[in-house]
């Protein structure tokens, strides 16, 4: 639905009750704000989305170049070469066939690689709906100062409404073994998440579904002839103001197009769909009813026929867990609230009232009543849509939701994770992990130096370097006579490098378990083997190891585990190899004789 660029600033920040040694915020948070533009976010955006630009080289360059130029203006010139640039494609590109999506990524790389920023080809990729949901949850709870804090705080669920899809993520005490369950470790805290994406439920896709439903209802079986009519067919829409008339391209209205959501499809026009002329025919009751049809999955899928929205959440498939807990509604929800100048305390009934008032205005009056911005005509539909989506589609009540700010988007979660990896690599602290800094760093350094000195003294005392003043006289130690040896006197001295059996051992050395993980450590890889985000299905929870005494986990910031059963050990001779020959009952003569005999031995 659009291509956007966000700029974030990451820096090292140690806090007493936080296990995250980095902080991330929007670069422009503290900068002077220009005159409002109507945009809900502090970002740069081009339209259309790159999924509409397949095989359109000039169009793709025209979509990406302005974003790069805008980012260059926000970032100091001396920081350009050290600033990482990522391009993550979401629902629009996910629906494309593999050939088309690969073309987009390859050609996007050819544009971005010429920028002054640091970028790698594998940083340009498509992320799954689950990843997008996970990033949104990270962003929300990081922004709410909940992640990595001690003592642990309850997390919020995230409802992230985009242009094409809705991401649902929440924490659950139940470890349900489904494809939607994630096991996540952040700092020293474990989280059991449920995350899934509802394709086709984004704001722009929802409006497209409303047009497709009206198109099918109006033209029925003759819809296939629409492309041959010679001119765009007019279609009345109850959620458009009186006096509105504009061309609209319906991607679901073409011949042979299915209305099912979540399908990968590309029309004969390369994704453009069927051209129509939308005409405003405002009717608030019909608009509300149309929004409910768009929300009801049974209208768009043969897998869930005849769902009653009053009985079951009708936007969810049978195998998807129902959302519960307290949620922050972000992204598209925030956009709608902001459009109607509603505060975060406003209810869904307030949204509906604002939407009804907006729909009553003539189009020429309505578009002048707000700051110029995209999709002004769709907000008459968006008001009842988000209310129906939450209440009927997900069965979430007003008291379960809070409206997040415009700075909370899933991109903040990506920035946090990538900054963590850069921090680990740049400072060479891969094994340092998300160490919980509850002590002053200077004290920590002092403790490490003191431990190093003690270790050196210990090694010195074991060897010949021990000062004579500290030495004590001991009786000689003899091997038993029945042990074959080239020498009667065979002293086995412990060495920090040799165990006596040819193996190398170091004293008290910690064992590093497994590959390095993430501050948001999980198990299954998202596809980035360089230390990227990983997810674990709930059926693959790591089993508790009886030998682990401490664990600091973090993918971006490293993972270190100290295993008390595997720590380096001192070598000691077998009890049968040595025996002290002096005894309390031994006579002075026997002792002298033994010593004399020892001097006769040639070592």
TrEMBL record:
Active site: 132 (proton acceptor)
Keyword Endoplasmic reticulum: no
Residue numbers binding ATP: 163-167
UniProt keyword terms in alphabetical order: ATP-binding, Hydrolase, Membrane, Nucleotide-binding, Transmembrane, Transmembrane helix
Pfam families: GDA1_CD39 (PF01150)
Parts of the chain that traverse the membrane: 442-462
One GO cellular component term: membrane
Disordered: annotated segments: 568-603
Molecular-function GO term, any one: ATP binding
InterPro entries from the UniProt entry: GDA1_CD39_NTPase
The family this protein is said to belong to: Belongs to the GDA1/CD39 NTPase family.
Name recorded for this polypeptide: Apyrase 7
